[in-house]
């Protein structure tokens, strides 16, 4: 008499009495050898076709020498092929960019697909829990195309049915570790498909020197640093408000000073005014000459300056009403950028309740109504919690530099930003490695982008103040 046991393998588990050892009897299905051979051949053939289709250049380069040797012998093959490496070398020397784009990166992509991703795909998927091993079969997400850019591998993936972006976002560390990358970012490309980004090199690993001053006056977007992919980081300041959040020493000053630097030619042309609030008396006081009488350090002066900005805003709004809905900077109505270093000193940490109220009201008025009439606020903040900065949501653009806690990332960049790879709490506290590094979300995309601000050192600020001090005429 056999007693059946409950569970997944019930039909394979039998025992005669409850206290005897379980006898495991695996089900054996006899597959005809011919069927196995047909399936195997079919897989090899489709694999070859797919390989040639996806990587024609790499396949051609690999196969040609062997094919020529077989067809004409090694001497003739050598004779025929010698011009190829010579030609490639000449191409690489004369037009490095096109050679890299058309040959080098494609070869690299093929190599990394076969050697890194395909080889490790199955174990990484199973161990990370993104694939399943059920009834003796592996159910794995489909590895798609690998594209190499100058700095990262972009890997397309078709998710398993029933998986969500969150399942992948929760396992970014596993994926980075599994494929030997420093980090991993995930983006949904279309229904069921996503793209994983594995950086190979980090263009932001070394500090960036202050950028050259723009040749023509511009109100933005201002180039303030570099993006992870090596492209310039352009920060919009006109028509928005920017909040820069970062722990102490995160490099908030470099974002502020790079922005000011990029705007200086426009300041000189009369198209921009920079009003500075420096309650810590540290950061902006260094370039005080640039701001003239639009500089305040004590809480009383800061409240007065903010209220002046509100008056300018209201007068403009009254003049513009019914005539124009957006602002174009002119000498009569320049763009006013109100820069506030450590805004919490003026709000949350301000002991004088009346002053605190005046400052909070002015800031809230400017951030809710200033955009359309050409008044922008750029505020720096160490602690982004709501208790400290209750108007943080009035800033449409936010930058998360190094933060102390993982929860603070979503407070700054919005829900889900950390899950999508904005690991601002993992940025190195070593200034050379991490100061000025941060994450931003551009308006067009929910995916965070890693950036680094250029470092405007004391000498640069001194030079800027000497050349552009308020009241100096254009050279
Ligand atoms: N973009 C940068 N690249 C390299 N190093 C930087 C950069 N920005 C700042 N640093 C270095 O980090 C140090 C701290 O920077 P900074 O004072 O701007 O930080 P912070 O966020 O303003 O800090 P705090 O809130 O304490 O004032 C600087 O003295 C400088 O040495």
From TrEMBL:
The keyword NADP does not apply. The chain crosses the membrane at residues 27-45, 57-78. GO terms for biological process: cell division. Keywords: ATP-binding, Cell cycle, Cell division, Membrane, Nucleotide-binding, Transmembrane, Transmembrane helix. PROSITE patterns: FTSK. InterPro entries: FtsK/SpoIIIE/SftA, FtsK_dom, P-loop_NTPase. Residues 230-410 form the FtsK domain. GO terms for molecular function: ATP binding; DNA binding. The keyword Transmembrane helix applies. ATP binds at residues 246-253. PANTHER family: DNA TRANSLOCASE FTSK, SPORULATION PROTEIN RELATED. This is Hypothetical cell division FtsK/SpoIIIE protein.
């Amino acid at each position: 008499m056999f007693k059946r046991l409950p569970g997944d393998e019930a039909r394979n588990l039998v025992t005669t009495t409850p206290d005897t050892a379980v006898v495991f009897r695996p089900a054996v299905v006899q597959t005809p050898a011919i069927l196995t051979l047909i399936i195997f051949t079919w897989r090899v053939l489709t694999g070859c076709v797919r390989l040639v289709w996806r990587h024609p250049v790499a396949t051609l380069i690999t196969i040609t020498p062997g094919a020529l040797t077989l067809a004409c012998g090694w001497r003739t093959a050598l004779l025929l092929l010698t011009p190829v490496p010579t030609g490639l070398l000449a191409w690489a020397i004369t037009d490095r960019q096109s050679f890299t784009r058309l040959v080098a990166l494609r070869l690299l992509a093929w190599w990394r697909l076969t050697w890194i991703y395909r080889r490790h795909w199955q174990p990484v998927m199973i161990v990370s829990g993104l694939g399943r091993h059920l009834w003796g079969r592996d159910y794995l997400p489909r590895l798609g195309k690998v594209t190499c850019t100058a700095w990262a591998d972009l890997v397309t993936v078709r998710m398993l049915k029933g998986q969500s972006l969150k399942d992948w976002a929760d396992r970014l560390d596993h994926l980075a570790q599994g494929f030997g990358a420093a980090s991993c970012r995930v983006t949904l490309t279309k229904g069921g498909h996503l793209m994983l980004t594995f950086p190979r090199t980090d263009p932001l690993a070394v500090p960036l020197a202050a950028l050259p001053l723009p040749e023509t006056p511009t109100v933005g977007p201002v180039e303030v640093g570099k993006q992870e992919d090596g492209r310039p980081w352009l920060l919009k300041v006109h028509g928005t408000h920017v909040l820069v959040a970062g722990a102490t020493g995160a490099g908030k000053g470099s974002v502020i000073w790079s922005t000011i630097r990029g705007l200086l030619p426009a300041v000189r042309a009369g198209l921009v005014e920079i009003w500075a609030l420096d309650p810590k008396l540290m950061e902006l006081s260094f370039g005080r000459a640039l701001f003239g009488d639009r500089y305040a350090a004590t809480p009383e002066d800061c409240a007065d300056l903010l209220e002046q900005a509100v008056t300018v805003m209201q007068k403009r709004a009254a003049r513009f009403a019914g005539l124009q809905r957006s602002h174009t900077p002119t000498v009569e109505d320049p763009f006013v950028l109100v820069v506030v270093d450590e805004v919490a000193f003026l709000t949350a940490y301000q002991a004088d309740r009346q002053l605190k109220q005046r400052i909070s009201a002015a800031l809230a008025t400017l951030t809710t109504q200033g955009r359309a009439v050409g008044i922008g606020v750029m505020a720096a903040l160490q602690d982004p919690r709501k208790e400290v900065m209750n108007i943080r949501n009035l800033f449409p653009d936010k930058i998360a530099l190094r933060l102390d806690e993982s929860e603070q990332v979503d407070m700054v960049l919005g829900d889900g930003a950390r899950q999508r790879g904005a690991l601002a709490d993992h940025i190195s506290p070593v200034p050379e490695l991490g100061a000025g590094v941060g994450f931003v979300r551009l308006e067009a995309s929910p995916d965070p982008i890693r950036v680094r601000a250029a470092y405007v050192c004391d000498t640069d600020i001194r030079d800027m103040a000497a050349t552009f001090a308020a009241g100096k005429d254009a050279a």
